Amino acid sequence: MSGFPEFGYRNHELFVESVSLQQIADEFGTPCFVYSRAALTKTYQEFDAAFAKRDHLICYAVKANSNIAILNLFAQLGSGFDIVSGGELQRVIKAGGDPRKIVFSGVGKNAHEMRMALHAGILCFNVESEAELVTLNRVAKELGKIAPVSLRVNPDVDAKTHPYISTGLKENKFGVPASEAERIYQSAHLYPSIRFTGLDCHIGSQLTELEPFMQASNKMLNLLDTLQSQGLEIEHLDLGGGLGIRYTNETPPSIKDYVAALCASTDQVKQRLLIEPGRSLVGNSGILLMRVEYLKHTSARNFAIVDAAMNDLMRPALYDAYHDIIPVNNNNGDMKSYQVVGPVCETGDFLGHDRKLGLTDGDLLAVMSAGAYGMSMSSNYNTRPRAIEVMVDGDTVHVIRQRETIDQLIAGEQILS
């Protein structure tokens, strides 16, 4: 299976590394998120090696998949982390991540989260507005600390991706307009508890071309030149994340080509280079395993009703995103075109439209490329417990999140007396 080397068929049965998905379904049930440790490790190491001797820090975007087992694996490999909430900060620390390798992004950091991050001693706050800068200065002053800050600049670059995951246009909520960034950096004297240490941008997610990255990089370098000519000391340049993966027919740049392009575009600057990959680190390292509950044939359409749903994998319903859906036992029975749908009470509850599959009741299916924005975006809609998560390491399966129970879901609720 091209693009998924850790996931492949053996005698018509789909395996993850050395474990069959049939075995995982039999032991742990479905729906179930399944990750390959080898794939996660290899992808991180590919990013790291591509920088060669260039001073760099890879800050994994925790929002893509925040399971602490995955965070711990990346921490062991030397990764930094890009967080967007106090909860993600606590996850990283619990997972053994180094706070000195954490950058804190996000447009709505509150004072409590700022205090947590300052006490932890994070590398940098990626500040996204002047109002946030005022609040962070006040909080840092109250604690007697100096907050390290990188201003997130909105370079007004079209990332050519889905509008919901485009973040670098001037109409987006993220960052400070490039036209205002220079003035804000020059106003450093107004914020005595702030130290400007970096320059940051992020233009979107699931980018499949290099050109938007290069446009953003060039705009950032021009601003960096201006700031340095004014005597401002910038220690790192954070070019964000956004590299896409192959879900079906996309042809995104390779990790090696992406990093090489970033390094080449910044080869004249001495600053440490930071990037914030998320999807490209974990997306193709995981699948969603599910079972066909019923086959429903009508005069208009054929439906494969499965036990996974939009609450497990939101991307198809939210973005009309495409994920390959393949059989665990590839015996190619009577092929029909199916709408692959879940049991949630919404017409938008689907995993895939018009999929050619040979199915019978009880068959297992794998939704590919579900390692990013699967579990991290899941919900309990319709009082559905969230799925179990397992990680395969060679021929061993480790449970990294137990399946939720109904008792856990309602534990915090109370009936009025």
CATH class of the largest domain: Alpha Beta
Q: State the domain count.
A: 2
SS element count, helices? 12
Distance between the termini: 58 Å
Shape: globular
User: Compute the gyration radius: what is it?
Assistant: 23 Å
DSSP, total strands: 21
What do we call the CATH topology of the largest domain? TIM Barrel
CATH architectural grouping of the largest domain: Alpha-Beta Barrel
Structural class: alpha/beta
Could you list the spans in which at least 5 consecutive residues all have pLDDT below 50? 161-171
How is the main sheet built? 9 strands, mixed
Portion in strands: 25-35%
CATH-level-4 superfamily name of the largest domain: Alanine racemase
Average pLDDT confidence is 93
Percentage of helical residues?
A: 25-40%
Keywords:
417 residues; alpha/beta; Lyase, Ornithine Decarboxylase, Chain A, domain 1; TIM Barrel; 2 domains; nine-stranded mixed β-sheet; 28% helix
Describe it.
The protein is an alpha/beta fold. The chain folds into 2 domains: 7-36 and 283-410, Lyase, Ornithine Decarboxylase, Chain A, domain 1 (Beta Barrel); 105-277, TIM Barrel (Alpha-Beta Barrel), CATH 3.20.20. 28% of the residues lie in helices and 26% in strands. It has 12 helices and 21 strands. It has helices at 21-28, 37-50, 68-76, 86-94, 111-120, 130-143, 178-186, 211-229, 255-265, 279-282, 315-319, 406-410, and strands at residues 7-10, 13-16, 19-20, 32-36, 56-61, 80-83, 102-104, 124-127, 147-154, 176-177, 194-200, 236-238, 272-275, 286-297, 302-306, 325-327, 335-341, 350-358, 364-367, 388-393, 396-401. Strands 4, 14, 15, 16, 17, 18, 19, 20 and 21 form a 9-stranded mixed β-sheet that branches. Strand 20 (388-393) and strand 21 (396-401) form a beta hairpin. Helix 2 (37-50) packs parallel to helix 9, helix 5 (111-120) packs across helix 6 and helix 7 (178-186) packs parallel to helix 8 (211-229).
